[in-house]
Amino acid sequence: MFAAMAAPVNDPEHGFCRDCLTLQRGRTMRCERCGSPRIVRHPELHKLHIAHIDCDAFYAAVEKRDNPALRDKPVIIGGGKRGVVSTACYIARIQGVRSAMPMFKALEACPEAIVIKPDMEKYVRVGREVRAMMFALTPQVEPISIDEAFLDLAGTEKLHGLPPAMVLARFSQAVEKEIGITVSAGLSYCKFLAKIASDFRKPRGFAIIGKEEAVSFLADQPVTMIWGVGKAFSEVLARDGIRTIAQLQKMERSDLMGRYGVMGDRLYRLSRGQDDRRVEPDHDAKSVSAETTFDTDIATMDDLVPVLRALSEKVSTRLKKANLAGRTVVLKLKSQDFKIRTRNRQLGDPTRLADRIFSTGLDLLRKETDGTKYRLLGIGVSDLSDDGKADPPDLVDMQSRKRALAEGAIDALRDKFGRKAVETGYTFGKGHRGRPSRPDEDEGPEVQHPWERI
C-alpha cells in the first residue's frame, strides 16, 4: 500500500499537507502545492510514534457507503423502537443523538432519522479490511474494538520512507479511497493522549499532543477526560470539589490514593500525562456474551426462557469458533426503569457448551423472576481459557456426556444446513423473540478482545 517515498525531514513547524503530503517550506495557511487548508504542524511532529485510529461513525458510515441515497440524511444504527443507538451519523449527532441512547429518545431528538438495524456480519468484514491495512503499517497493532486500535509506529521510517505522522495521514487517505469510509487519527508519545487526540476534530480528524505540552493541555480539561472516570466516579470527585484535571495536578499521590485507592494512583499519573502502557498486539479475550433488547417489556419465565436459550447458543457458537471456554457464567437483566442486574456463578470446570451455559443461566434467572418486567436480557461467560480442558466428563451427572454429544451433532447439522435446521424445544415456534434471524442480531459484544478471533 505504501510505496517507498524517501522524504526529507522538514521543519516540524512548517509541517505537511494531509491531502497531498507535500512538505511545506513556510508557515502558510494553505498548502503550497494544492491549496488545501489541512496542514499538520507541531514542534514534536517527527518525534511521536504512538497512534490511535478510530473509524468515524463506523456502522453508519458503512451503511452510507453502501447506499449513497443516505449520504445527506440522518442515520441511526440501532435495535428498533425499544433498543438503543449503536451509532449515529454526524448529521444525527448534531441534533443530539448519542451512542447507547434509548431509541425512543433518539427519535424524539431526531424524528426524521432513518433507523437501520445493525448488520454485524458486514461491519466485522469491513473492520477486518481496515485492520489489514493497519498491519501493513506495523505489526504493533492493538485492537480495542471492531473500529479502533492503537499502533506503535516506532522504527517504521525505513520501511515506509516517511515519518509516523505522514504514514498516518497516508493511511487515512488510503482507507477513504479503498474502503470508502473515513477515520480520525491521534498521535502522541503515549496511549492515553493518542486516544484523546483522535477524538478531536472528528470526522476526518488528525491531532497531535506532544510531551512538552501534555501537562498544560490536560490542566484545562474536565476530570471525565481521564480513562476510568465515568459519570458515577466524576460525581464522587465533584462532591470532593474536584472537577478539573488541574486540581488533580496539584494533589499528592499519597493523598489521592488515600481517598480513592488504586484509582487515585491512576488519577495522579494520567493527570500528568504519565502512561507507560505499551501497545500490546496480543490482547487476551476478557469475555464472550450476547444480549437482546425486547420490543415490549416481559416478566415471565415462559417469555424469558426461549430468549435465554437462543442467546446461550450464540455464546456457545462464538466460544467454539474462537477455541475458548469460560468458567464463570454471567446473567444480565435490565428492568423497564433501566436498572441493571448482573448475577454470576462460577463453574467447577470451563465450558463452551450451550447446554451448561443455559442451565446455569436458567438457575440464576429463576431467582430474578419476581414480577419485574425486563427490557433486556443477556448471558455471557468470563474467566476465559483455551478449550483444551473444557467440559470434562461429569461422574455425578451421567447424562452430561450424552448431551454434549447431542450438541456436537446439532452443531454439525447447523454448520451444513443453517442455524434453523435444528432447534430445541425451548426455542421452536417461539418466533423472532426467541429465535433471532441471524447470529449477530443482538446488541451485545462478541469476543472482547480480540474481535478478529471470531
Automatic annotation (TrEMBL):
Mg(2+) binds at D54, D147. Its EC number is 2.7.7.7. The active site is at E148. InterPro entries: DNA/RNA_pol_sf (IPR043502), DNA_pol_Y-fam_lit_finger_sf (IPR036775), DNA_pol_Y-fam_little_finger (IPR017961), DNA_polymerase-Y (IPR050116), DNApol_IV (IPR022880), Rev_trsase/Diguanyl_cyclase (IPR043128), UmuC (IPR001126). Binds 2 magnesium ions per subunit. It is found in: Cytoplasm. Monomer. One of its GO terms (molecular function) is DNA-directed DNA polymerase activity. This is DNA polymerase IV. Residues 50-230 form the UmuC domain. The record marks Y59 as: Substrate discrimination. Belongs to the DNA polymerase type-Y family. Its cofactor is Mg(2+). The keyword Oxidoreductase does not apply. Poorly processive, error-prone DNA polymerase involved in untargeted mutagenesis. Copies undamaged DNA at stalled replication forks, which arise in vivo from mismatched or misaligned primer ends. These misaligned primers can be extended by PolIV. Exhibits no 3'-5' exonuclease (proofreading) activity. May be involved in translesional synthesis, in conjunction with the beta clamp from PolIII. It catalyses: DNA(n) + a 2'-deoxyribonucleoside 5'-triphosphate = DNA(n+1) + diphosphate. Keywords: Cytoplasm, DNA damage, DNA repair, DNA replication, DNA-binding, DNA-directed DNA polymerase, Magnesium, Metal-binding, Mutator protein, Nucleotidyltransferase, Transferase. It holds the Pfam family IMS_C. HAMAP family: DNApol_IV. The keyword Cytoplasm applies. Residues 424-454 are annotated as: Disordered. It is an enzyme of class 2 (transferase).
